[in-house]
Amino acid sequence: MKVAIVTGASRGIGRACALRLAADGMTVVVNYSHSEAAATEVVDKIRAAGGDALAVRADVSNPAEVKEMFKTVWKTYGQIDVLVNNAGIVRDEYLLMLTEENLDACLDLNIKGYLYCAQQAVLKMFRKKSGVIINMSSVSSKMALAGQTVYSATKGAVNSMTQTMAKELAPYGIRVNAVAPGFIATEMIDALPEDKRAQYLTEVPLGRFGTVEDVAAVVSMLASDGAAYMTGQTLVLDGGLSL
Ligand code: NAP
User: Fold this and answer.
1) What is the pLDDT of residues 50-98, one digit of tens each?
2) What is the distance in A from the centroid of ligand 1 to the CA of 34?
3) Residues 135, 155 contacting (CB under 8 angstroms)
4) How far apart are CA 129 and CA 131, in angstroms?
5) What is the mean pLDDT of residues 33-52?
6) Which of 168, 175, 73 is nearest to 131 (CA)?
7) Which of 6, 129, 185, 243 is deepest in the core (most CB within 10 A)?
8) Are 46 and 4 in contact (CB under 8 A)?
9) Does 10 sit in the ligand 1 pocket, CB within 6 Å?
10) Which of 7, 33, 158 to probe ligand 1 with, by most ligand atoms within 8 A of CB?
11) What is the pairing mode between strands 3-6 and 27-32?
């Protein structure tokens, strides 16, 4: 049975990816940093459906905690086949209002966190000469939204690291791809004022916000052998928003 680690899997897109990969037959490590009860609920749901899952706490922007998490997974399962680098934050601020604290938080989690986890996963994937890494990017890496200078820069970095890692790791049988979602119906979208939501909706050619299951379906495909010849790509999943 394959073992997948999904970072930031206690809610939102990460939760949907964890449930989907479990439904695909994988053992799933549900990473979280604060929301223990929510992560446990995801694990319980997977187990209730007959799958295997483990919740592991680690702030993935902290390299020592990342190492500890991978050690725990290795001790428990002795293999790591799929890494979904999903945990990420948005700190929307206009350039002139940008604080050092928010800048550091975004860079530390959205860029460094992805690299720390990839590094640890690859150390284990090397042994089997196979593995899949999926990095959660954003359509903000492809189109400009005022107020997202830092967020878009981090997601642009995710696309670039995806390409480079893919080239570097291909000889070892490790595939690396990214998914760039547009507006996905999560708490973030729910929290918008009704008029703002309606305005955003008019900008999506497919006429609806994406669901977390839409994203999980693409992650599932990338993790599967159906994508065996695909590496280094960023798949945009935005209902046509960026066209
Ligand atoms: P979300 O609902 O805010 O969930 C974030 C998840 O990450 C939570 O499980 C949270 O768990 C975890 N997390 C936060 N900081 C962490 C840390 N330092 N270490 C480990 N886990 C941490 O996020 P989302 O909207 O599903 O977004 C997930 C990813 O998709 C992000 O990379 C985001 O940039 C990307 N994305 C989202 C959208 C969208 O419309 N939602 C669109 C494009 C791209 P805790 O509460 O335990 O910290």
Assistant:
1) 999 999 999 999 999 999 999 999 999 999 999 999 999 999 999 999 9
2) 12
3) no
4) 7
5) 98
6) 175
7) 6
8) no
9) yes
10) 33
11) parallel
With a 6 Å cutoff on the Cβ, whether 148 touches ligand 1 is no
pLDDT of residue 208: 96
User: How many Cα atoms are found within 13 Å in the side-chain-facing hemisphere of 135?
Assistant: 36
Q: CB of 56 within 8 A of CB of 73?
A: yes
- Per-residue pLDDT, 192: 78
205: number of Cβ within 10 Å = 11
Per-residue confidence (pLDDT) for residue 191, from 0 to 100: 76
Q: What percent of the chain has pLDDT over 70?
A: 100
Compute CA distances 112 → 34, 56, 89, 209, 231, whole Å: 19, 19, 13, 29, 21
Token digits of residue 217: 């379906």
Q: How many CB atoms lie within 10 A of CB 144?
A: 9
Residue 24, token pair as written in the block: 């695909």
Relative to the CA of 139, which ligand 1 atom is closest? 43
Q: How confident is the model at residue 193 (pLDDT cuts 50, 70, 90)?
A: confident
Model pTM score: 0.98
Name the 3-class secondary structure at 156: helix
Please choose from 5, 6, 10, 13 the residue to mutate so as to test ligand 1's pocket, defined by most ligand atoms within 8 A of CB. Answer: 13
What is the spatial distance between Cα 204 and Cα 200, in angstroms, rounded to a whole number? 7
CB proximity list for 229: less than 8 A, separation 6 or greater:
none
